[in-house]
Amino acid sequence: MELHITGDPAADTLLSNDAFALLTGMLLDQQVTMESAFAGPEKIRARLGSIEPSVVAAQDPQAFVEVFKERPAVHRFPGSMAGRVQALAETVQRDWEGDATLIWTKGQPDGKEVLRRLQALPGFGEQKAKIFLALLGKQCGLQAPGWREAAGHYGEADAYLSVADIVDPESLVKVRASKQAAKAAAKAAKG
Predict the structure, then answer these.
(1) Which fold has domain 9-157?
(2) pTM
(3) Contact 107, 93 (CB under 8 A)
(4) DSSP-assigned letter for residue 73
């Protein structure tokens, strides 16, 4: 698996090789660009020397906020997002033996179960969980039966709706266009 989300080779390599980094990038993907969100785990790793859940969870919360604030910032909302990343790290450490891949592999779960497990994570609502499930299925080799159905429209082939569909610069342009169209439609619906 080789992801191409951020445009930064070091950040994309980390996302490709570290499941917790990828999960963290998905968590950070709100109110910032996708590229910035998914580059966040590499910034954390560079500043702490590790992105391991045990290391992140063990950080002093205020010191971890400072890691987020260091320029370039990990996220535009350093306080709340640092707390969410630590909560995610604590959950993966406690409930999944420090191994994020167990969320989607332990006990050979089907797509619905993987979705349920993702939604149980701190900071993962239904939409974020469905997008991440689609990312796992489309780009990370997830073989869970029914993952496409559980991911909803994000699981459809050639959907170009989310980070799950970004494989190169051309697909990034298509995803941006669909996101802009969705925002415009939502704004128009509000009146």
Answers:
(1) Endonuclease III; domain 1 (1.10.340)
(2) 0.94
(3) no
(4) P
